[in-house]
Amino acid sequence: MSLRIPGPTPCPDEVLKIMSRQMIGHRGKEFAELVHRVTLGTKEIFQTNGDVFVLSSSGTGGMEAAVVNTMSPGDKVLSLSIGVFGDRFATIAERYGADVMRLRFEWGKAVDLDDVKKALDADSSIKVVLVTHNETSTGVTNDMEAIAALIREYDKLILVDAISSLGCIDFPVDKWGCDVVVTGSQKGWMIPPGLAMVSVSDRAWKAHAEAKMPRFYWDFTATKKSTDKDQTPWTPAVSLFYALDVAIGLLLKEGLQNIFTRHARIGQKTRDGVKSLGLSLFADEKYASNTVTAIKSPDGVDANDIRAMMLKDYGITLAGGQQALAGKIFRIGHLGNVCEADIDDVIIKLREVMPKFGHKIPS
Amino acid sequence: MSLRIPGPTPCPDEVLKIMSRQMIGHRGKEFAELVHRVTLGTKEIFQTNGDVFVLSSSGTGGMEAAVVNTMSPGDKVLSLSIGVFGDRFATIAERYGADVMRLRFEWGKAVDLDDVKKALDADSSIKVVLVTHNETSTGVTNDMEAIAALIREYDKLILVDAISSLGCIDFPVDKWGCDVVVTGSQKGWMIPPGLAMVSVSDRAWKAHAEAKMPRFYWDFTATKKSTDKDQTPWTPAVSLFYALDVAIGLLLKEGLQNIFTRHARIGQKTRDGVKSLGLSLFADEKYASNTVTAIKSPDGVDANDIRAMMLKDYGITLAGGQQALAGKIFRIGHLGNVCEADIDDVIIKLREVMPKFGHKIPS
Prior knowledge:
The first copy, chain A, is of the alpha/beta class and 363 residues long. Chain A folds into two domains: 14-253, Type I PLP-dependent aspartate aminotransferase-like (Major domain) (Aspartate Aminotransferase, domain 2), CATH 3.40.640.10; 256-357, Alpha-Beta Complex (Aspartate Aminotransferase, domain 1), CATH 3.90.1150. In chain A, 41% of the residues lie in helices and 17% in strands. Chain A has twelve helices and 13 strands. Chain A has helices at 13-19, 29-46, 59-68, 84-95, 113-122, 144-153, 202-210, 220-227, 238-254, 256-276, 303-314, 340-353; strands at residues 2-4, 51-55, 76-81, 99-104, 126-132, 134-135, 140-141, 157-161, 180-184, 196-200, 292-296, 316-320, 329-333. Chain A has a seven-stranded mixed beta sheet, sandwiched between helices. A four-stranded mixed beta sheet of chain A has the order 1-12-13-11, with helices on one face. Chain A has a two-stranded antiparallel ribbon with strand order 6-7. In chain A, a hairpin with a 4-residue loop joins strand 6 and strand 7. Chain A is globular, with a radius of gyration of 20 Å. Chains A and B meet through helix 1, helix 3, helix 4, helix 9 and strand 12 of A and helix 1, helix 3, helix 4, helix 9 and strand 12 of B.
C-alpha cells in the first residue's frame, strides 16, 4: 500500500510508534517541557523569532485563526487565489464580515505580480492580503518572496496559507516579512492530521489588538498566555504533540536545507516521470510545486478511473481533482516522508495502467 | 504511573495500538466506512436518532460550535453555571455577541430549579439556555433530566456541555429533549484528546437556519453535508478516528447500562474512600459526580503540595483546583477506562501521604 496524496502523508515508523504512547497529564511538568520543545522546534522550521502556536485542529482551523485574530468586520481584504484553497481563505474572511476583493488567477497559473500591484494601487483602503504559498488543488507554488516584498512596499498585513509547503519548500517567514503563516501537521511535518501551526509577527500582534472579529477557541491572546507558560489554553491533542516532538527531531536532524533540496529533486523527478509517459502537467511548469503534481487526464478519460485502477491493482492511492477539476486531473503527493523510490514506483505503475485507458506511452 | 485526572483519561491497550496505524486517504472508501461506523456508534452512545458530528478539536471547540451554529448576535441567553466550565460556556456566547444572563450557583452546588424557573418567568425573550451536565471543576452533576424538562416547558433551546459525563453517566439525549449536546474524546470515550462530538436536534436545526453568528470551521451545514456522505468537511484527525472506532466497539461491548453502573459504583467507592480518610468532599454529596471527585484540602495545607507528593512518591497524577479553587482542592478522575483497583490504589496512597501534612486519619 502506498499513500501518494498531498496529505495526510505517510508517517515515519518513529512517529507511528510514539502515537501509541499512553496519556499523561496535559497540565503537568512533562507535558510543559514537551510544549516548550515543540514550540522552539516549530519556530526553527518556520525560520521565525516571532510567536508560533500549535492549535488542535486541522489546517483550515489555522486559516480561520489567522483571519479572526487580525481583522474586524468591514476590513478591506485583497484575496490572491489560484485555486480551491485560495478561494477557501477568502470565504473564511467573508464569513466573518470582511470586505473581500477576490483577485482570482487561472487555475494552474501562479499569482501575477502586476495584477497585485494594480489592485493595491487601485484601493488604498486594503488592510490585509491573503495568499496561498502552495496551492494543493493545482500543484502551483507562488513566488512568495516576490509577492511578500511587493505587499510589504504597500505596508499591508500578509496572511499566508503554507499548509502544503512549510517544512518542504523554503519559506523564511521573518526574512520575507509574512505576518501570519499557517501550516498543518499532516503535510511536511510527517505526522497525522489534527494540528495546525501558526506564526504571528509583531505587525500581526498590532493588528490583533484592534481586531474585532469574534473568537474564543482560536484566540491568540489566550493562546499566547498559555504558550508563554508552556501550556495550551484548551486540552491539546496530546498524542499529536508527542508525534510532533519526534517529527521535529527527524526534520532538524535531516536539516532544513537538505529537506528543501530533497523536495526539489523529487518534485522534478515526478514531473520528468509524468512527462516521460506522454502525460501533461496541469500546472505552469515555471511555478510547478515541489510537494504535489497535478496531471491532466487524457481526453475522454475520467481521472478518477485511473485513480481507481491504481488503487485496486497496485494499492497506490492518488488524489483526485477538486471542484471544477474533478475527473479532469489526478494528483501525486510528494511531500514529507518521501523518497525517490516512492516516485519510481508510481511512474512504473502508471506506465502499466495508462495504456489500459487507450493512452499511448512514448517509446 | 497512574493518571487519575478527569481527562485525558488512560487509554485501553486496544486504543493505543490502533493509534500507531499508518495513514490512509481521508477521501477514500475505507475511511468513509469508518466515518459511517463511528457516526452510528456515536449516535448510539448519545442515545439519539438525530445528527451527530465528530469535530477535530478539543471539547471547547465543540462548545463554540454549539453556540455559533444556533444563535445570532443579540440573542438572549440564560447561562446556568456551577463552575469554571459553565462560566466558559457563557463567555463563548458573549464573545460572539449573545446577550447572556449569567445565573451562577455556589461552586460545589448544583443548579437550583426554582432559580431557573424564576429567571425564565422573568424574561420571556430568552431563546437559549446553556447548561453543564457534569461540572469537571467542582465534581457536581446537575439533574439534567429535571432541568431539561423545565426548560422544555418554556420551549427554549437547550445546549449542554456533557464533556465529562457523556458515555459515563446516563444521558438519553432525545428522551430528555436536549438540542445540542457536546462531549470530548479524552473522557468517557477512552481515547486521546482531539475530537469533540456534538448532537444536533431538529429544533437545533431550525435555530441553525436563522443563526447569524459567523462560522466556517464549525459550520454544521458544511459538516452535515460531508457527514451525510460519510466524510468530514476538513481533513480529520485520522488516528483519533481509528481510535474512536475501536473505543466505540469496547463501549458497546460492555453495554451502556453496565458502563453507567460501573461509574456509579466507582464514584461511590471514591467518595467512601475519601471520607474514610477523614477528608471532606467539596461537592454537595446529593449531586456528587460519578466521574470526578473534588476533595477539600485540610486547613492550612496547599492541595498542590499533596498532589506533588502523590506524584513524586507514588507516580499518581491527581488534578488540582482551578481558578478560585487553586490550592484549595484536589480532584480524582474516575471516568472512562477505570476500575475499582485504580481507586483502591489512590486511597491507599493518600492514607500514607496525608499524615505527612499533619492530617489525622480516623482509626
